[in-house]
């Protein structure tokens, strides 16, 4: 049976499920809980900056560009009512779960100093 | 950066003799040193005067080899090393290696030996007149282009050409009569650094120096496998060694590190130990990282050509991938980043690091090529030795070897003939289970600078060494 948690988005933006971290990504006005893991080498996408077109995240580790659409595919099912969100955890997840608030750069406006470097992903 | 010392030659010499006389730095009978990272034979100091810096012409001399071993020991006593079988197997040596007396002696001898070993870098190549950020950028891109890795259309580190044919030293290895021994010798030279990979870099992680500090940490993070032991570069390097039957314990092949390898690895430890060297270091790392991606793709191709499917070359594949990133990251964020942040004051030092590295790579390549060419043809050099025997000088030094005699490798400062007067002797010119056997009456030509060790293959063997002058390459 799937596990469900309730989180207060006004206080928390990050969920740890065992060693996997999820963060709240703003995707065009929608808050989605996506995996904080670059597909290249596992860099923290929550600390990525948006490319000037806003459609990709530039991973802070190697500059890998990860499409927001690809990042969204890692999202956990979430039902939101105001600041309260009901999150369905991954199947079989019996790992410890915690919610916290961390700095998230991925929701800031695009980085004006951005250079178009690094490989594309997703 | 200027190499300076305050110790007098006499006190340094005395401290050096005491340092080298430590039990853990004395030769042992074994050719390979198994499972004990604290046993590091230095070899006889002889009459060497380390107060006068070695010149480039003396780069492969016995003084540089001895200084290189001492400095390697000195720098690594700042690192944590533990034997794979557990500390109980070497607790006394651990205590001695890290103990007060050895560290005090180390601190006394190190500045003088650094001056001896590295001063030639300042004299060997005149620093190009690069002063501004634009000049630095143009200079760097011209240098890496000249080294065969021009920037791509975006101005960044080029992608790897995985299909490139092996060339240069990698090709020379495949063309040896004993390619597995030659390839193993290459892996052993890499092991000097790779088994403690990024430990020198770790010295530059602390402190507070701005954005560049975080940029270096990203690279370090890759080197250390993101905290996953199985992904740590030194771990996958061990897997590569093991796949071709080589030992994975640190410095098992201590006796087979070439002089140039020791100087090269010590250079990076020197620059990170003495923080005045940090700008040189950052530039040197940038230059290497830019070239490493294709370099390791070539190394992987060589290893697969030599060993076939049994080699686990993931280490090479990893570097062929990640160093494309590191080349770009170091260039844009370290080299140019430091130049932007600190300006023309540091640009000459950055250039110096690249010039030093170019020279060390060139000298190291020549040393390795000469070693495999000689080690691969010891039979021919035995014939040459016999032909030259009558031309030997009258300066014979004779010694007696027994199977249990202490073994160490060394180099001669002039061409020498090694003659076996009685018994049998094995010549170890690279790490092989089939060393070259000399019988009674055999004479081997050992060119100056060639690393070798002799071990008795009979209950007793008498060996005479004489200098020989050649007017041709045998």
From TrEMBL, chain A:
Q: Which Gene3D superfamilies match?
A: Rieske [2Fe-2S] iron-sulphur domain (2.102.10.10)
SUPFAM superfamilies named in the record: ISP domain
Q: Which domain of life is it from?
A: Bacteria
Does this entry carry the keyword Iron-sulfur? yes
Which regions form coiled coils? none
Classification via Pfam families: Rieske (PF00355)
Where would I find the Rieske domain in this sequence?
A: 1-63
Q: Does Metal-binding show up as a keyword for this record?
A: yes
Keywords (alphabetical) are:
2Fe-2S, Iron, Iron-sulfur, Metal-binding
InterPro entries recorded: Rieske_2Fe-2S, Rieske_2Fe-2S_sf
Spell out the protein name for this chain. Rieske 2Fe-2S domain-containing protein
According to its UniProt entry, this protein's organism is Actinomadura violacea
From TrEMBL, chain B:
InterPro entries reported for this sequence: Haem_Oase-like_multi-hlx (IPR016084), RmlC-like_jellyroll (IPR014710), RmlC_Cupin_sf (IPR011051)
- Where are the coiled-coil regions? none
Which Pfam families is this protein grouped with? Haem_oxygenas_2 (PF14518)
List the SMART domains hit by this protein, alphabetically: Haem_oxygenase_2
Its domain of life? Bacteria
For this entry, the protein name equals Iron-containing redox enzyme family protein
């Amino acid at each position: 049976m799937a596990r469900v948690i309730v989180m207060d988005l006004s206080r928390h933006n990050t969920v740890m499920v065992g060693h996997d971290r999820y963060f709240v990504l703003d995707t065009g006005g929608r808050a989605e809980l996506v995996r904080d893991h670059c597909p290249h080498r596992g860099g923290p996408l929550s600390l990525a900056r948006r490319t000037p077109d806003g459609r990709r995240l530039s991973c802070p580790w190697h500059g890998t560009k990860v499409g927001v659409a690809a990042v969204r595919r890692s999202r956990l099912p979430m039902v939101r009512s105001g600041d309260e969100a009901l999150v369905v955890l991954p199947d079989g997840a019996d790992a410890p779960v915690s919610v916290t608030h961390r700095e998230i750069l991925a929701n800031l406006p695009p980085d004006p100093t951005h250079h178009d470097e690094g490989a594309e992903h997703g | 950066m200027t190499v300076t010392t305050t110790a007098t030659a006499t006190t340094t010499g005395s401290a050096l003799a005491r340092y080298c006389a430590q039990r853990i730095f004395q030769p042992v009978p074994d050719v390979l040193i198994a499972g004990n990272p604290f046993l590091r034979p230095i070899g006889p100091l002889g009459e060497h005067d380390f107060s006068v810096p070695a010149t480039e012409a003396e780069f492969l001399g016995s003084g540089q080899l001895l200084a290189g071993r001492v400095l390697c020991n000195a720098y690594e006593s700042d690192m944590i090393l533990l034997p794979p079988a557990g500390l109980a197997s070497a607790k006394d040596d651990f205590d001695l290696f890290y103990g007060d007396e050895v560290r005090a002696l180390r601190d006394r001898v190190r500045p003088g030996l650094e001056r001896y070993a590295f001063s030639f870098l300042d004299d060997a190549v005149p620093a190009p007149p690069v002063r501004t950020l634009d000049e630095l950028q143009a200079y760097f891109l011209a240098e890496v282009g000249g080294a065969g890795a021009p920037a791509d259309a975006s101005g960044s580190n080029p992608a790897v050409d995985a299909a490139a044919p092996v060339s240069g030293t990698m090709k020379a290895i495949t063309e040896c009569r004993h390619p597995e021994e030659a390839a193993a010798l290459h892996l052993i030279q890499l092991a000097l650094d790779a088994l403690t990979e990024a430990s020198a870099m770790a010295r530059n992680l602390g402190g507070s120096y701005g954005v560049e500090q975080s940029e270096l940490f990203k690279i370090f993070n890759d080197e250390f496998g993101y905290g996953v032991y199985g992904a740590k570069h030194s771990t996958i390097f061990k897997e590569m060694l093991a796949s071709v039957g080589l030992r994975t314990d640190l410095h098992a092949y201590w006796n087979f590190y070439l002089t140039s390898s020791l100087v090269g690895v010590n250079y990076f430890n020197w620059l990170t130990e003495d923080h005045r060297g940090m700008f040189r270091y950052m530039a040197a790392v940038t230059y290497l990282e830019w070239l490493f991606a294709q370099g390791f793709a070539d190394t992987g191709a060589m290893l697969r050509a030599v060993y076939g499917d049994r080699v686990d070359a993931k280490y090479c594949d990893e570097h062929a991938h990640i160093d494309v990133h590191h080349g770009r990251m170091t260039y844009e964020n370290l080299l140019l980043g430091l130049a932007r942040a600190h300006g023309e004051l540091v640009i000459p030092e950055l250039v110096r690091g690249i010039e030093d590295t170019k020279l060390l790579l060139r000298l190291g390549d020549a040393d390795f090529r000469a070693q495999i060419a000689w080690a691969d043809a010891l039979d021919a050099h035995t014939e040459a030795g016999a032909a030259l025997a009558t031309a030997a000088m009258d300066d014979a030094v004779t010694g007696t070897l027994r199977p249990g005699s202490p073994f160490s490798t060394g180099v001669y400062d002039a061409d020498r003939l090694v003659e076996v007067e009685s018994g049998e002797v094995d010549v170890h010119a690279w790490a092989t289970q089939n060393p070259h056997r000399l019988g009674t009456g055999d004479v081997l030509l050992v060119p100056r600078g060639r690393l070798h060790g002799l071990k008795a293959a009979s209950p007793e063997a008498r060996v005479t060494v004489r200098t020989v002058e050649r007017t041709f390459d045998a």
